[in-house]
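Exercise 7. Given the encoded structure of a 273-residue chain, write a plausible sequence.
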């Protein structure tokens, strides 16, 4: 049975995503930070990891991208989880504080606009927030997380689906030491030369080779003002040979290019409880 590292404690969204991907046929290892996941695999304590990469409301999780660029792990799979944020409390007092992960608060902005008196307390993951509420919270404290947290940590469900939009999905990737030899989806990052037409020349092979571009996003390149890296996902449509051709042509116009992974497009699951 494979050992899989994930962020948080049992009941975190990463844990739920991992259980769906592996159909329960894995031993899960709790980690406090994203970097701990990479370290666990590097040390041999786990063979694979589950890492949140982007959310349909709050966007890409750049810390995950940074670690994939800096470390040697590759994306070998993905799973998409429909996120349904639930509000929990310990007692019946007026809520004054709320514990949860920073990304969760980004996805629940409207709720906190309506309740500006509630202080947002950042915690490493949603399950740890529920544990804090259960162990040391007061009657004025609350936490946000998955529907399963109530039973796991003995906290009271106050309200379901407090996210800004019901179409709230998080894409998780499965990371490991070795790149897959086969797959239909590719993730990569690159930085282009500061020259007119560089981006067009870099992306032109996608259209010509019939590759389906699923995502392109730019972000600042750390330490180099006004230079950017681009995060790209695309589907090969069964044309594996075109990947080598496309990468070869892209290298003529980029400062660097890194393939983050080759894998199959993931299934979507609903955290409905």
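Solution.
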């Amino acid at each position: 049975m494979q050992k899989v590292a994930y962020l948080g404690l049992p009941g975190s969204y990463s844990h739920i995503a991992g259980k769906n991907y592996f159909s329960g046929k894995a031993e899960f290892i709790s980690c406090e930070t994203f970097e701990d996941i990479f370290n666990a695999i590097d040390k041999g304590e786990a063979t694979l990891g589950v890492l949140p990469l982007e959310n349909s409301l709050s966007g890409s999780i750049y810390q995950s991208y940074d670690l994939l660029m800096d470390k040697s792990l590759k994306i070998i799979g993905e799973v998409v989880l429909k996120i349904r944020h639930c509000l929990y409390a310990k007692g019946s007092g007026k809520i004054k504080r709320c514990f949860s992960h920073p990304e969760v608060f980004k996805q629940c902005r409207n709720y906190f606009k309506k309740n500006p008196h509630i202080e947002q307390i950042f915690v490493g993951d949603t399950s740890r927030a529920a544990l804090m509420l259960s162990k040391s919270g007061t009657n004025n404290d609350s936490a946000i997380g998955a529907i399963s947290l109530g039973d796991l940590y003995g906290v009271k469900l106050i309200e379901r689906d407090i996210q800004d939009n019901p179409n709230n999905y998080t894409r998780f990737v499965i990371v490991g030491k070795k790149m897959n030899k086969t797959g239909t989806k590719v993730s990569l990052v690159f930085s282009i030369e500061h020259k007119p037409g560089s981006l067009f020349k870099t992306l032109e092979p996608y259209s010509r080779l019939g590759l389906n571009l699923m995502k392109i996003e730019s972000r600042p390149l750390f330490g180099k003002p006004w230079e950017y890296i681009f995060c790209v996902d695309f589907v090969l449509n069964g044309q594996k040979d075109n990947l080598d051709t496309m990468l070869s042509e892209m290298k003529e116009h980029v400062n660097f290019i890194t393939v983050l992974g080759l894998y199959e497009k993931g299934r979507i699951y609903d955290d409905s409880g």
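Remark. The chain has a mean pLDDT of 92. Students should compare their own answers with the one above.
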